[in-house]
Specification:
The chain is an all-alpha fold. The protein has a domain at 12-62. It has five helices and no strands. The protein is flat, with a radius of gyration of 15 Å. It starts with a helix and ends in an 8-residue tail after the last helix.
Length: 84
């Protein structure tokens, strides 16, 4: 792929990650996620990695992705005020 702009799109990275997972290389999909900037796209990539890895039986990478998703979603939720 010559156009660098395509390599940054979620659609390209999602399909490439899915191909890595389905060919037995979930660590490569994880590396794709690590190279992404924090955004809604990176959260979507985590969702894809977690679910696709689980479906393919790559439970270590699935658990890792679900754990990071949990951390990110709990950090985004406002905490209730503490009452005296």
């Amino acid at each position: 792929m010559r156009n660098e702009a395509y390599r940054k799109e979620l659609c390209f990275n999602a399909w490439l990650g899915r191909c890595y997972i389905h060919t037995g290389a979930p660590q490569e999909a994880w590396k794709l996620y690590l190279r992404m900037e924090m955004s809604d796209d990176s959260y979507a990539m985590l969702h894809l990695i977690a679910n696709e890895c689980y479906a393919m039986g790559h439970f270590f990478h699935s658990a890792k992705a679900f754990q990071v998703r949990g951390w990110l979603s709990s950090a985004a939720r406002p905490h209730p005020p503490v009452r005296p």
